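Aim 2, interim progress. The first record below pairs a target sequence with its structure tokens.
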Amino acid sequence: MDCSNEELEVKMKPSKRRRTVDNNGVKTQHEEQEDQQKAAVDVSIIMPVYNASCWLDECLQAILDQDFTGRMELSVFDDASTDDSRKVVDTWKERLEGRGISVVISGHNSDQPRGVGHAKNKAIAQSSGKYLCFQDADDIMLPQRVRLQFEASVLHSSSLIGSRVRRVPEGSTERYTRWINTITQDQLLTQVYTSHGPTVIMPTWFCSRDWFLTVGCFNEESKGVPEDLIFFYRSLRQGGLVTRVDHCLVVYRYHEKATTHSVKEETIWKLRVEFLQERVICNWESFTIWNAGKQGRKLYRCLNTTNQKKVKAFCDVDRNKLNKGFYTYEDSKERPKPKIPILHYKDASPPFIICVKMDMTGGVLEENLNSLQLKEGVDFFHFN
């Protein structure tokens, strides 16, 4: 269930201004407007907090060290922390406000946290900035983050803006980190179906409040729901774009308590298959699944009946699979049961859905794709 946008929209409405005259000793309407413009918040840093006390000093110091010269605000929502997270944030309030960063803190003391989607929505609702900078309490923003992403967001008002990251501990998710930092601008849109999730990761997101309101609130259903992926796909459905600032702007921490570990792989799989069918496969008359193994067959079984009929072949390089000649869909209610040919990739024809893990074949997959002179986003899409 997604929250209502009414609470957020109130924040976007300009406040009413009195008409006054100079000779009454009261500021004119023009002067009031100028004062309000000076006081307007440019960027709200949106920070949900749950049991993050051990990381908050580093996180908040990094906010204090931002080189952005506009008006900033920190909006914190404490999602029923059982440690002293709230106390730590309170101790930083004076220092942040002394730097000109206004601080809004709220939360709840229920027996159970209500989830990161709920906490983000609450933090946004109580904030007032024209732009939103999403910050995880266990991560660290580098000094130029707000400035560079603000500049990019002004130019790309209907985009989710991300950045490159540095992962700590170093090497903890080597392949994933390399993917985050090296995919091209075009691949930010073509690789949205892979198991990595959003092509710009949530801890680096920055966008205008207007665009957030267009897309709608984060999903608040329950623990284990990938609210970032759901929002990301909804943003794309609304015609939004994806942009990355090609600088490392966030130190992205890996640890076992991270909320991402609570999301089930099968939940993400279903969302990906649905989006792939909606955005890609529905536009094709037929296609080939590249991988006749476990993942390729699973994708086939998860397609709707109409799209299963569009699969003209599997392709592979494994001799054992090729020697079988075809894949029989045993669970099908059709009689006779569908038998899908298994071909060598050189004998198969595009378009392809690639169900082979990227960066796991020593470059062989990439060489094979290049040998066929295929264009990503037209002739093939990565799914794994």
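The second target in this work package is listed in the same format:
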Amino acid sequence: MEAVLIGICDGAIDKKKNASYFTNKIGDRPDILPVITLQYPMCTLCQRGLSHVVQVYCPLAASLYHRTINVFACTNPHCNGKSESWIVLRSQCLDDDIKASSGRQDDKSVQCKESSISRTDWSDEADDWGLDDEEQNTVAESSAQTGADTVQTQSNSINDGMDVNSKLQDLCIDGGLDHHIALQPTDVPIFQPFYISVMEETDLDGFHDSDHENKLLREYEEREGVIVGEIRSGEALEEYEKAKVKHGDEVFTSFMKKISLCPEQVLRYSWGGSPQFIMEPPSNLNQKVPCCGQCGSLRVFEFQLMPALVSLLCSVDTHSDIALEFGTVLVYTCRNSCWKSGSTFPVEEFLFVQSDPDQKLFK
């Protein structure tokens, strides 16, 4: 069974406390890895600068790399719900890269300590990101021997003949030459910053809020003219499973049932797992997910943003009325998580946006 990690909003980030690249968060400016030069991306539809939506620190088992994924989106109402108005960037680096960049002799030990803290914040086994016990044992036995080989293989697998960063740079606003502080254009809205805490989906039994769930269900019944009945012990009644909403969207019904245990979830993480669709996906979605632009390997599902995130995306400027609407955003990344040694630019990955057939249900 696929292990799933659930991300939940864990309070506002204090302005006095500096977040870093190993902070999992909503909004704010991205915290780039020390060796990465960030260029803020622009919307391909309206050419406006994109706002930072989430940052996920997600190092993979059996890899020596720090690994951060940042998702950006356009706040222009005309671009809402369109995949072309979003972008996802993956950044990686080694401890030695950080040490060389900072010039501090003790930096490696500091970074390792910080990374360990961040990973255990996700869950007891978050550093393995959903690997089952058998896979974890295999990784543990082989990682020491294969770690260096992994780095070399990833470096050698790059197709040096492809200028994979040219497209990304064409879509970017120069963020400055300082690797540590890449300035965001002043006209790009910034969302209020919140921490994301994470737990395993299997640990959510004590988190279940049936009152909130039934309230949402009542509102759903009134709009759709169906009778679903009460929800007991986090499970929908048989009538709910068989209910046919007016628009006949059984996928949406299944989606609602799946997240009913924790409607507040803002992110679902399952590297190599299966996403939860909010509406029927294209029949050829697997064919539409392109292979990695760097090494040519397949991309796998890694995580998705959930509807509850929408209500948290408010501008830090209280006088600014911006909004971002979506149903779910599915993020796919390179199966090999390839990285070219010495690279200072993030790698663009693939995402797929599904609009929400009934956004009011989550407000």
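Confidence is low (pLDDT under 50) at residues 104-166, 174-182, 230-247. This observation will shape the mutagenesis plan for the next reporting period.
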